[in-house]
Each structure stands twice: as C-alpha cells, then as structure tokens.
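Methods: example folding runs. The two proteins below were folded one after another, and each record is reproduced exactly as written to the output file, sequence line first and structure-token line second.
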Amino acid sequence: MVKWIVVYSSVTGNTRKLAEVAAREMGADLLNVQEIIGSADIREEDDEESVSIDVCRNSLAISSETLDRKLEEKLSGYDGVMVGYWLRKGAPDRKSSILLSRISGKKVALFQTHGAYDGTEHTITAFARAGSMLGPGNRILGTFSCQGAVNPALIKRRLEGSVPGHRGEDLEACKKRWADAATRPNENDLQRMADFAKKMKATAERE
C-alpha cells in the first residue's frame, strides 16, 4: 500500500482547505511546509502574473544541509507526496519551490491555487514550472488547479498602482476576476479535490 503525505503552503487559507480534504480522502498525513522549512523570512514578490522559476537552495536562514536532513526525516517514510502551493510569478511560492527541489524518488501529485481563472495559460504553464523544480526520480501522477481568493493586501497595492509590472492593465477586468476568485474554493471545488485525491490514491496503487 502506498503511504501518502500532503504538504502544503498557504497564506490566505485557500490551499489549506484543499489540502485538508485531500489528506482526509487519502488517509494521508498532513504537513504545513512551515514545519519543514520554518518561518525564515523569504521575500515573496507582489507581482502575481510575471514568471520566475529561480530556486535558490541557500535562500533560507538555515543551511542547505540542515534542510536536506529535515526533509529526509519528514518524508522518508512516504511513497507518495502531494504538494499544494499558491502561485507566485506564475510558479509555486518560494517555500514550495525550495521544497519541490528537494523531493526525489516519490510518486507525486501537485495542486495549486491562484487568482487567475481556471484553464488559462497562466495556470497551465505553472504546472510545467513546478514539475521542472522537482528533484530526480519522481513520477508525477496528476495535477489539480483551483482559483482562490486573492490576498486583500495585494489587491490594495494593485489598486494603488504600487505593484510593478501591471501599469496599463484593465483594472475593471481585474476587479471582476478578484470578485469571482473571492468565492473560491467553493463546495464544488472541495468535491473536485476529494475526487482528485481518490484518483491519485488509486493510480498510485496500480503502478
């Protein structure tokens, strides 16, 4: 039997809600990435649309060797790892990026939350970036994407024009998207995650 752990990163609670559903459906352990990487101050840029896949192994207040050891301790007993993250610059948030780069030899499922509409190029290409960050020897079994409420502090800065890279954007279209995102994840999204988690569990058992 494949033993799973769900590891997630969440700021506004969107990713956490989905992670809790996934862990329940899979009978998996649940872990916040903070419990591995800690509360080191990693600057997350405000720009939610532009692309960056740079992952620095030494961008934390703890050493690379210490982090590798902590990850080995936390993940060594699991065959499958489901990683949930929120999108930053079209890629997983910084702490999740560092986590992904250190996962190796596992069956992996990825899920992400974002302010963009589902199925857009922004969300689809983000999975390719997440996959490219993974360490060696992993097998990605599936992906799940869900729109989620945008951090109000970010919306405030966007409206003030203080976020670089967004000058000249259609703010009315952004306001509508933010309003739509504020209702997510909804009950339908949580059920979709439950179905996805069951599928990942069954897929892993067949392989």
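Second run, written to the same file directly after the first:
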Amino acid sequence: MEIRALRDDDPEVISAAFDGTKPVAQYERYLAEQRAGVRDVLVATVDGSYAGYVTVRWESPYFGNIPEIQDFNVLPALRRRGIGSALMDAAEAKVAERSGVVGIGVGLYPDYGQAQRMYVRRGYLPDGRGLIYDGRQVPPMELVRNDDAATLMFTKRLR
C-alpha cells in the first residue's frame, strides 16, 4: 500500500472507481484547493490501483482554525484491510505538524456505522454541540431530515 498526495491524473480514476457517483469536477476542485494550500488530499493505492482517499481542510467552515478531516472514502471491496486506518494515520500525522487538535464529522444513519465506531476507537470525542445539519447546530425540538447533511462533530487531541 502507498499513501501519496492527489495527482493530476487521479480525478478521472477516482470518479470512475465510484461509478461516477462522485463527479470528476469534485476531484479537480480538490486538486486546485491542494495547490492553493487550502486542502491536502491523501490517496491510497494498493499494488498501484486506487483504493481510497481522505482530505484535510486546513480552515474548517465548522471548526474554524481547527483543521478538519473531510470526505474519507475507501472502496467498499477493499474495506477492513487497514487502508482506512492507514489513511487516518497519515491525515492525523499531517494535521499534527500544524495543530494539536483535529476535527471530523460523521453521518448518523447506518451507512456511517463503521466510521462512527472507527472514530470512537481512534479517540475522537463529540464536540458537545449536538446534532449539526448542513453546518448549523439544530435547536432542541426542531425536525431535520436524516441525510448526509445531518452529522455529529468530533474532535481529537493529537498532542
């Protein structure tokens, strides 16, 4: 397994690996943000083939000056082989060079169950603000849809 920075030839490969459900333009934007120093993108390959990626956004829209790990994906067929843990290790190490704390958000429905458990095992703790929907704190008794915009936000002390 190799973990490296996102390269110019990756957007089409990654989009195709997700059957086009993640558009090429998303990864082209990530490349531009990586060049601008706004985001770092770490790509995992196994035997030279794409396996997964994670991004670090250096100024989080939610956490402010705490870097946030965002958009963490490992191909379903390659999960439970240590690729996700290796990507998280690399992302946390990169953040630790610049910050003592890292943030991450996780969805609330069962598709996110493995990620929820992984983050807790890795020492992430809820930030105490409760349910977040589309980047804003949901007040008590307000109804929201349980979709990808509904998250619980966590932080972890790195040093």
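Comment on the second run: The chain has a mean pLDDT of 96.
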